[in-house]
Amino acid sequence: xxxxxxxxxxxxxxxxxxxxxxxxxxxxxxxxxxxxxxxxxxxxxxxxxxxxxxxxxxxxxxxxxxxxxxxxxxxxxxxxxxxxxxxxxxxxxxxxxxxxxxxxxxxxxxxxxxxxxxxxxxxxxxxxxxxxxxxxxxxxxxxxxxxxxxxxxxxxxxxxxxxxxxxxxxxxxxxxxxxxxxxxxxxxxxxxxxxxxx
Length: 198
Hints:
Radius of gyration: 23 Å
Distance between the termini: 63 Å
Helix content: 10-25%
Oligomer: single chain
């Protein structure tokens, strides 16, 4: 009988120990802040930046990476998407390079280039709370001749179709000129073409 009680006591203590480990690991997971992906150049299909000093990363799921990227001729485009926790708001970052030629520095919305040939950066915030049948509200922040940025392509491998780089830009809401969004410490590493499924 004594051995039975000792055995039950040991099992109880083991259960408490395992429960405390489980709780501490859960707590650690929920308190972890999102972080930017590492700046890689192997086609890992990642993207991230700070938007107004808050970490933003595309939201991968079972079905998609949260990123679209492709290049053709002299054009390179990358877009990353993320939804908030209750899916009422989607934030996307768009970068278009219309004079893409491989590694090097690219100015976003260079005012010296003709309209339509300039490179651009954009942050788009879409509110998904519109009633069925109505267009969702969106707030668009774009680079312009006063709000510029830069993309640095650090790797371009046309055989493996890998494009990697860094970016930063300021973008303004044309409807409310005081609304400027700052995108900093951006990085991406994609194997093109990469398509987003909705």
